[in-house]
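Work Package 3 (structural annotation) set out to generate three-dimensional models for the target panel prioritized at the project kickoff. During this period the team completed the workflow that converts sequence records into discrete structure tokens, so that structures can be stored uniformly alongside our sequence database. As a representative example, we reproduce one entry of 295 residues exactly as it appears in the project archive.
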Amino acid sequence: MKPILIFGKNGQLGQELKQILNSSGQKIIAVGRKEIDLTEKEKLPQLIEQIQPKIIINAAAYTAVDKAETEVELAYKVNADAPQIIAQVAQELQAFLIHVSTDYVFDGRKSSPYQETDLTKPINVYGESKLAGEEAIKSACENYLILRTAWVYGNEGKGNFVKTMLKLGAARDEIRVVADQIGSPTWTRDLASAIANFIPHLNPAISGIYHYTNSGIASWYDFAVAIFAEAKKLNLPLQVQRVIPITTLEYPTPAKRPAYSVLNCAKIQQVLGTYPPHWRQSLTEMLKQELKAKN
């Protein structure tokens, strides 16, 4: 049985993918930075050819949005050059490539959910490098699934918005959070499940770009308020008394963020036959798991 090869095994999505796909009886080989540095152009094809996968899932990326503004070369090496090489080898091996991309390929000027066919126009280096990766895959490989997602958080990995808020909420009375950027928080467990559920449907006829996030929309402020409300119900340690909404202008960052990056997920729903869970429901489940891990 040819295996499924996962890049990014130690990331928050990679760890969820390993758990879900292992439990489905699939043969999995997962690699992280220890096994392969995605900037090593010579070693990357050798590794893939040695494994001979039937499916490659690229859940690895350079995701430090603000640092990317100064680490441009590194961001492009990981987010554009590596996916191009992976796609070229996938084409040679006739393997199907599943690549995770981002809402940041859009400029955020729309006021209705972005469709897969909408014009891409990133406004930061991270988004530009991820878009370059998408373009490279489309030109190098016939059988691919580019899955754009947004506002990803999970129980695994180093850190994310939910974990940051819990940490700050346990240490501070007051937290200021941006209220004029709108998106859809997405739990890695739901995203990994969607990828696993897509695998039986993989065939050349459905190659292309798809969007997947949890349903519902929120600002970062709404998200923070919900995190504290749910954490309080679960008696997670909190000191925070006030969450204050602020504007993007009041919280300047090196990289610009899209003001609106809600993704339309109708296309993937037609394939999977299910509607993504609401972000609030998934947030509650994630926090319950955090509580379990602490006890």
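Residues 72-93 form the longest helix (22 residues).
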